[in-house]
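Figure 6 in text form: structure in, sequence out.
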C-alpha cells in the first residue's frame, strides 16, 4: 500500500471514531429516510449507516434473465450520476457445476454514501434522481 493510501486509511479510521462526525452522518440518514418512505418505492429498512438498498421489484418488471437490478443501477447513473451497485444475479455468479446463472429472489441496488462528500442537499438530489427513475418504471417492462 502506498504512503498516500495508508494516510487516507488512517484519516478515515480517525474520523470514524469522532462522535460528532458519526452523529452528523446518522442525522443525515434520519432526514433522508422519510423522503424515501413517502416516495412509494421499496427499499430495505432500516437504513444502514452509510448506504441504502433499493429493491428492484417495483422499478423494473424485466424477467430475471435480463438482470433488472443492473438496469436500475445503470438508469440511476444515467439520470443523475448516482453510482450504485447491483446486488443480485451478477453478484450471485453461476452455478459452478452446471454453469447456469443463479437468480436470487431479491435483486437490489446498493447506494453508498461516501464520507465527507454528501450534504443534505446531495441527499435531496439523490432522492430526486431515484424518484425520476421510479416515475419512468413503465418503460422497464418486457415486451
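Output sequence:
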Amino acid at each position: 500500500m502506498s504512503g498516500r493510501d495508508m494516510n487516507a486509511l488512517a484519516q478515515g479510521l480517525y474520523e470514524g471514531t469522532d462522535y460528532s462526525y458519526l452523529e452528523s452522518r446518522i442525522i443525515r440518514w434520519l432526514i433522508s429516510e422519510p423522503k424515501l418512505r413517502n416516495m412509494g418505492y421499496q427499499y430495505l429498512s432500516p437504513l444502514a449507516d452509510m448506504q441504502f438498498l433499493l429493491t428492484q421489484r417495483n422499478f423494473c418488471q424485466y424477467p430475471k434473465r435480463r438482470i433488472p437490478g443492473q438496469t436500475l443501477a445503470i438508469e440511476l447513473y444515467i439520470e443523475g450520476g448516482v453510482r450504485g451497485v447491483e446486488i443480485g444475479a451478477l453478484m450471485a455468479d453461476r452455478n459452478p457445476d452446471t454453469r447456469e446463472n443463479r437468480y436470487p429472489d431479491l435483486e437490489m441496488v446498493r447506494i453508498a454514501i461516501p464520507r465527507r462528500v454528501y450534504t443534505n442537499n446531495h441527499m435531496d438530489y439523490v432522492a430526486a434522481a431515484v424518484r425520476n427513475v421510479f416515475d419512468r418504471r413503465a418503460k422497464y417492462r418486457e415486451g
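Caption detail: Residues 41 and 126 are 14 Å apart (CA to CA).
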